[in-house]
Write a structure and sequence with these properties.
Layout (H helix, E strand, L loop, with lengths): L5 E3 L31 E2 L17 H10 L4 E10 L28 H4 L6 E10 L3 E7 L4 E7 L2 E6 L4 E6 L20 H10 L5 E11 L2 E10 L6 E9 L5 E8 L7 E9 L17 E4 H10 L2 H15 L3 E4 L6 E5 L16 H10 E6 L2 E7 L4 E5 L3 E5 L3 H11 L1
Parallel strand pairs: 8-14
Antiparallel strand pairs: 1-2, 1-9, 3-4, 3-13, 4-5, 5-6, 6-7, 7-8, 9-10, 10-11, 11-12, 12-13, 15-16, 16-20, 17-18, 18-19, 19-20
Length: 410
């Protein structure tokens, strides 16, 4: 019978568990850092019908089990669904990658572009891992497949739809192999997402063991993370942890507003045996267009993009007045002053076309407070208040919490 063991984090007593990252961020989830746990208690709870009957474990012990997990070999299939209430980023991602526009020569197979697609929609992935130097991640599409393969000093990426290939040299263990490190992307596995959530846990967080479950045919404990504060857009984070290995098998983030999960990532099949060596071999298919990472950098520099980017960043740094954080924990709100101190054009000012004004009005809500007036732009998790005098307040908090933070900043 699984207990509902609780460990509510406090600022008075902490026990820090530090794990070691074993491979690329977007593939292997093994390290967990920065989790404080104290005041551990036992509250018996019955497992739901059909759930596995596992030995009792405290939240502190389960967090330590995740951090101590040393599984460096696995393969499997997982499904990840993301619903943040924003449009799909698939067609937009390339616009934000250096070299993707203006003759920079970016390849559609470049991981920095393709992995951003995981930030919205539902995707099926296959993963294979054999230590820190060999990993493979594939995104399965309808009649197509996108794969990133890291094998020793080489990183290959292939988009079967366009038959484009991207190649980079990865920095080896001695730091001398090549200047291009294996690319990082959005967290893609349950463990990677769990690491992010646990690292953020503090004295505003409740961490409990909430029963058991079966995930991908394996027995698992369920770790439940919830904010103690009100006003957060995050309702809870649930992590299914493999009872045997300590590897997170499923990650679910539920918004406080209810409805379907904002992020739901879990293995449907998983195998902790050593993957076949052929999983990490790659040869560009016949007729494929191969782009070298060095060529992209050279192309961008030739077109003056690197210099322009440096000037833009320098100018941005001069214009921003700094970033302050209001509040703490789950209710933390970042305050930024826009360059030039100007907000959105006032309604009826004539500075914005009527259709554009209607579009912005449909996306945002007009608000007022001690700070003045502004517009709140909302997603299911992250909201932003842009004031009429050129300040922006951003956080995973409700509209009312944003207004309260803006008032407190005045």
């Amino acid at each position: 019978m699984a207990p509902n063991d609780s460990a509510e984090t406090t600022g008075e007593a902490t026990s820090t568990v530090v794990g070691r990252r074993k491979a690329a961020r977007y593939i292997v989830p093994v390290a967990v850092a920065g989790v404080a746990a104290a005041t551990i208690g036992l509250v018996p709870a019955l497992a739901s019908s059909g759930d596995p009957d596992l030995p009792e474990i405290t939240a502190q012990q389960l967090v330590e089990k995740i951090a101590a997990s040393d599984e460096e070999q696995l393969s499997g299939t997982l499904k990840i669904s993301t619903d943040l209430g924003i449009p799909s980023l698939g067609g937009l991602a390339g616009s934000f990658v250096p070299g993707a526009q203006g003759g920079g020569g970016a390849s559609s197979a470049a991981p920095e572009t393709k992995l951003m697609e995981l930030a919205s929609g539902t995707h099926t992935l296959r993963v294979a891992v054999d230590g820190p130097d060999r990993q493979r991640l594939s995104i399965l599409g309808e009649g197509s497949e996108y794969s990133v393969v890291h094998n020793g000093d080489d990183v290959w990426a292939h988009d079967s739809g366009s038959n484009q290939v991207y190649h980079a040299r990865s920095e080896g263990a001695d730091g001398k192999a090549g200047k291009h490190a294996a690319p990082e992307g959005v967290p893609a596995t349950p463990g990677e997402l769990a690491e992010e959530a646990l690292a953020a846990a503090g004295d505003t967080t409740s961490v409990t063991v909430d029963g058991t479950a079966q995930v991908a045919g394996r027995d698992a404990y369920q770790l439940l993370i919830k904010p103690k504060q009100s006003g957060s857009t995050i309702g809870s984070v649930r992590i299914a942890v493999d009872a045997s290995t300590g590897v997170p098998l499923k990650f679910t983030l539920a918004p406080s507003s209810g409805g379907k999960a904002a992020i739901d990532a879990g293995f449907t099949k998983v195998d902790f045996r050593k993957p076949a060596a052929s999983s990490f071999s790659f040869t560009p298919p016949k007729g494929a267009e191969v782009t070298e990472a060095d060529e992209l950098s050279a192309g961008a520099a030739k077109n003056g993009m690197d210099e322009k980017a440096r000037k833009d960043v320098a100018a941005l740094g001069e214009d921003f007045k700094g970033l302050d954080v209001i509040g703490e924990g789950w209710n933390a709100v970042a305050e930024v002053e826009l360059p030039g101190g100007a907000g959105l054009p006032a309604e009826g000012s004539g500075d914005m076309p009527a259709q554009a004004q209607q579009f912005l009005d449909a996306l945002g809500d007009k608000v007022t407070g001690d700070f003045g007036s502004g517009t709140v732009f909302r997603t299911r998790l992250v909201n932003a208040l842009m004031t009429d005098d050129g300040k922006v307040y951003v956080g995973a908090v409700t509209k009312d919490a944003l207004v309260k933070a803006a008032d407190a900043a005045e």
